[in-house]
Amino acid sequence: MPTLIKDGQVIENTWVLIGKESDLSSVLSHASEQVLVPLSLWQEHKSDLQASEKAIGVWLDSDDDTYELGSDALELPLIALNFPVFMDGRSYSSAAILRQRIGYKGELRAVGEILRDQLFYMKKCGINSFEISDSVKLEDALAAFSDFSNNYQSTIEDPLPLFRRR
Length: 166
What we know:
The chain is α/β, with parallel strands linked by helices. The protein is 28% helix and 22% strand. The chain has a single domain (3-164), classed as TIM Barrel (Alpha-Beta Barrel), CATH 3.20.20.70. It has an eight-stranded mixed beta sheet. Helix 3 (90-102) links the parallel strand 6 and strand 7.
């Protein structure tokens, strides 16, 4: 199971990510009490999922339209963003949209192919938890958050660009 880093701490991952091929009955009968469902399943069965006893989060694939989740995001305890391959950066934009435009304040998790080199930038986009694969050394992953002491551009963490912070 991948390591989970949340807000700079290594913690146990209690959420189970449900694949796109799953249906409502498999989600509701799943043993876990905390499940992440794909956006399409959420849209199709929102009322049934909300009525269940489970804690429900939603995960967005990189080609999902973040705005389709809309104000539903504000009700969710966890939204996960999939980074299917290193070269696909669309989920960075999804993170910024969720934080800046939609106003999401909950846990925003990066899942998929997460590499050490991406962690600093993911955090700057508003992602605060990260599923780290077993191939990445935990010490290296934690060190990645302090790779740079400052950044020039504005970020979710530092809304003013460097020249405005002087």
